[in-house]
Design brief:
about 425 residues, mainly alpha, Ammonium transporter fold, two-stranded antiparallel sheet, 16 helices, 4 strands
Length: about 425
């Protein structure tokens, strides 16, 4: 009987699709820009490639017996989150606002009414369906980022349940609050160009909660499986991040160029800073360190990329890499087993980026910034708004994730057995090996 359940689910979905026919595709709309549409199609593909890049990045760092399971945890997000997104997830994030916290799940149910020339109010020159597909890629990579914290010790079935709960109760409310015009963080004036709060802080705090809840691995000393995987993953992430940040301009314009430039320079500065920071403490310059630094720089510049200048982006890269490096060092001296240091890199990097946005943002760079200039330019309002958002999002993401972990554990145990952990998750969870 169980084998027919997936088929029944597909038939139900097909029936729902027929129940809500698409709108007629009318004549081309003069408001739709071919250039903007072409760029956003490219940016959507760029952001999607970041998830396979993350899979290589994480997969190369873990023990050889856990490479496939770790990479698969990222890949499966592309399937699970996509289905949720098209059914009701996009509506939760961008549907009609409910008190500025969450969207109405029925607004765009099954992508209803999204073909033709319909547009999203903040991206008026591209079709709304393209906007939805672009935002989907952000929703995909966010739960994938968390996997580095509990790598090598989580049951795959329980993981699937957790990422579904995380998307509905953590990611969607944060996306709606921050990026929807009626979201309460948006109305507060919080600046998050491409996901400092929504993506990196939410994933970082969820990672810390996961590391604390699942407790330490039984075998914590190991050699990374493939440093070359880490380097390939970093390259794919850096490449895809241009779509992540520059695409958040939603147009082929000078703001997209500025975001691309600041992303490039911040990442480069962070990679060098991480490597030099290690050398200053008597360590050898490592490929792993440079790769981690580059990613931290990309994380930190994400919320600021469309609001700050190139000189400011260099400072953001240097500061974020130095602080994250120190937090990684601190974490290794504690009992917290954040396997791949997701919280020190993504959580801390995202918070540093949010704060420095409040320091270096300037309205001349992006007129859409109506909150004010940064602390560096003598104004304080924006900085304090960013601080308020940082505290609120941190509390919500951390304690919300702890609750979801507990709920998941009650339904389906999170930890693999000691025997399965010993033989590795590749074999115990998937029956596969390198």
């Amino acid at each position: 009987m169980k084998r027919f359940i997936p088929v029944a689910i597909l038939l139900v979905i097909a029936g729902l699709c027929l129940a809500f026919p698409s709108i007629d595709i009318s004549k081309p709309d003069a408001h739709i820009s071919a250039a903007d549409t072409a760029w956003m199609l490219s940016a959507t593909g760029l952001v999607l490639i970041m998830t396979p890049g993350l899979a290589f990045f994480y997969g190369g760092m873990v023990n050889k017996k856990n490479v496939i399971s770790t990479m698969f945890q990222s890949f499966i997000c592309m399937a699970i989150i996509t289905v949720i997104w098209v059914v009701f997830g996009f509506s939760l994030a961008f549907g009609d606002s409910f008190h500025g916290v969450i969207g109405n799940p029925g607004t765009f149910f099954m992508m209803r009414g999204m073909l033709g020339n319909a547009t999203w109010k903040l991206a008026p020159t591209i079709p709304i369906l393209l906007f939805a597909m672009y935002q989907l890629k952000f929703a995909i990579i966010t739960p994938a980022l968390i996997t580095g914290a509990f790598a090598e010790r989580i049951r795959f079935n329980s993981y699937l349940l957790f990422i579904c709960l995380f998307f509905v109760f953590i990611y969607a409310p944060l996306a709606h609050s921050t990026w929807h015009p009626d979201g309460f963080l948006n109305k507060l004036g919080v600046l998050d160009f491409a996901g400092g709060t929504v993506v990196h802080m939410s994933a970082g705090w969820a990672a810390l909660a996961s590391a604390l809840y699942l407790k330490a691995r039984r075998e914590q000393t190991h050699e990374p499986a493939r440093i070359t995987y880490v380097m390939i993953g970093t390259g794919l992430l850096w490449f895809g991040w241009f779509g992540f940040n520059a695409g958040s301009a939603f147009a082929a314009n000078s703001l997209a160029v500025s975001a691309l430039a600041t992303s490039t320079t911040a990442s480069a500065a962070a990679a060098i800073s991480w490597m030099f920071f290690d050398m200053a403490r008597g360590r050898k310059p490592s490929a792993m360190g440079a790769c981690i630094g580059a990613v931290v720089g990309l994380v930190a510049i994400t919320p600021a990329s469309g609001f700050v200048s190139i000189p400011a982006s260099l400072i953001i890269g240097i500061v974020s890499a130095s602080i994250s490096n120190l937090v990684v060092e601190w974490r290794t001296r504690t009992t917290i087993d954040d396997t791949l240091d997701v919280f020190p890199c993504h959580g801390v990097g995202g918070m540093v980026g949010m704060l420095l946005t409040g320091v270096f943002a300037h309205q001349q760079i992006n007129p859409a910034n109506t909150t004010g200039n940064g602390l560096f330019f003598g104004e304080t309002h924006l900085f304090f708004v960013q601080c308020e958002a940082l505290v609120g999002v941190s509390v919500f993401a951390f304690f919300g994730s702890l609750l979801l972990l507990k709920v998941t554990d009650m339904i389906s145990p999170l930890r693999v057995s000691p025997e399965h952990e010993a033989i590795g998750l590749d074999l115990s969870q998937h029956g596969e090996k390198l």
